[in-house]
Amino acid sequence: MITPEPKTSGVPENGSLLRRCHRWIGITVAVFVLLLSCTGIALNHGGDWKLDDRYVAAPWLLDAYGVHAPSEYASFVDRESRVTLLGQRLYLGDREIAESFDALTGMTSLITLVLVTSRDRAFLFTADGELVEDMDLSTQLPGPVERVGRAGERAVVVSGGLTYRTNADITAFELWADSTTTEVAWSAASEGPASLLKSLKTQYRGRGLSMERFIADIHSGRVVSIAGPFLMDAVAILLIILSLSGLLMWLRPRKIR
Amino acid sequence: MDVFRILVLCLAMSTDTAIAEPNERAGRYMEVDAYLANSFAEMDPQANTLWVVGELRDSVERALGHRLAALRVRYWRDDDTSVWILDEIGKELPITIGVTVREGKISNVRVLEFRESRGWEVRYPFFTDQFYDVKLDSKGHLNRKIDKITGATLSVAAVTRIAKVALILDDYTRTKD
Fold first, then answer.
1. Does residue A219 share a domain with residue A129?
2. ∠ CA A121-A127-A128 to the nearest 5 degrees?
3. Is B77 part of a structural domain of the chain?
4. What does the pLDDT read at residue B13?
5. Most A CBs within 10 Å: which of B46, B50, B57, B71, as the mutation test of the A interface?
6. Residue A165 sits in the same domain as residue A227
7. What count of CB pairs under 8 Å joins A to B?
8. Same domain as A165, residue A90
9. Hey, are the CB atoms on B70 and A131 less than 8 Å from each other?
């Protein structure tokens, strides 16, 4: 006995164009959906996970991003302390002590403290590199700091052709009218040891690309050059098509029933 | 007609946004000397320094929710009034804030310098006036809730943290001095 085949009129077959499109688009965007979801979650919790304070270490990635240490630097030494400015990062010995320092004009070492100056600020650090105080000199000096040194255990700076000396607590600079320059040990720029410079440049490069930026670039597609965002746009369009085709497939049999 | 109205409204809003460039609102609003002159009308107080170490540092860092950048802070005092000029990062750059504390209560908060592109609304009195007469409660929190500003959440949080830190430091120095 032959059983008649059930009628399937109007119901799309498994191999219909819509279903095939939906399946292939689904497979194509699956990887991107995973990528976007994972990176999105990471970015949402970036603050908690301190992603802006973690850095990419892979040299090939740093090369790809063009993260290089600057070749020019400024370095001063006094007693046993050396301060080096590489880019905008300031190092005491091989320890980074400031990350946005504009111009190093000098430094001096005062027993347990180290005074470092930019044009209009003085930064007092402990010998271990902990910041004691950031002092605004623009209200105390007539112009930018031109020269830094020490007389005894007091820091001395020259500004506007005049000599100023810190008070005993190193909280303020006072005009030192009766100074004689022979009393002052002036700081002068000098070349740092090659091994130290190499170590600083490695450190500098290692802090050039934060995990947060890297993950954000993966999320937006920028990690693969300028074509990346367009690729992500295409993925977004495919996701829209996927949603619509899924909706259509869900609606069509219901209409027929 | 309604569509036309909506279009006109959208155009007006976009023009307003273009005029109100956020970066134009950042800047130095007041010098430290001017703030001090406002706080101490009849004298020129000398700056004192306070080493923030030990238990005091722990309390300050709890209030800040992060490490205090410097070991030493500067303040000005005359009898029961102290002035604190402190920096705190809102999102990425420090906001310089002046806080005057009188008899353990805040009598004035002023944003002296704002460096970021957003959140500068915290400079306005409608926000800073909320701190008037605020003090620390028995648990070490501000005794009054500070209302936030939409779009300036991080700056509001930074100013609120600094207000709390100034009260802690004032309390410590009043006891010590």
1. no
2. 105
3. yes
4. 46
5. B71
6. no
7. 26
8. yes
9. yes
A8-59 pLDDT, tens per residue?
A: 445 555 558 888 888 888 888 898 889 889 999 999 888 788 888 888 888 8
A34 within 8 A of A40, measured Cβ to Cβ? no
Question: What amino acid occupies position B118?
Answer: R
Q: Do B71 and A172 touch (CB under 8 A)?
A: no
Contact B49 A133 (CB under 8 A): yes
Number of folded domains that form chain A: 2
Element (H, E) at B114: strand B105-114
Lowest-pLDDT choice from A41-45, A207-211, B55-59: A207-211
List all residues of chain A from 172 to 211 with a beta carbon under 8 Å from chain B: 172
Does residue B165 fall inside a structural domain? yes
Task: Calculate the alpha carbon distances from A216 to A33, A52, A81, A220, A242 in Å.
Answer: 15, 11, 39, 6, 25
Q: Could you give the C-alpha distances from A39 to A28, A52, A216, A220, in angstroms and in order? A: 18, 14, 7, 9
Neighbours of A30 (CB within 10 A): 11
Q: What is the spatial distance between Cα A177 and Cα A93, in angstroms, rounded to a whole number?
A: 34
**ipTM score here?**
0.72
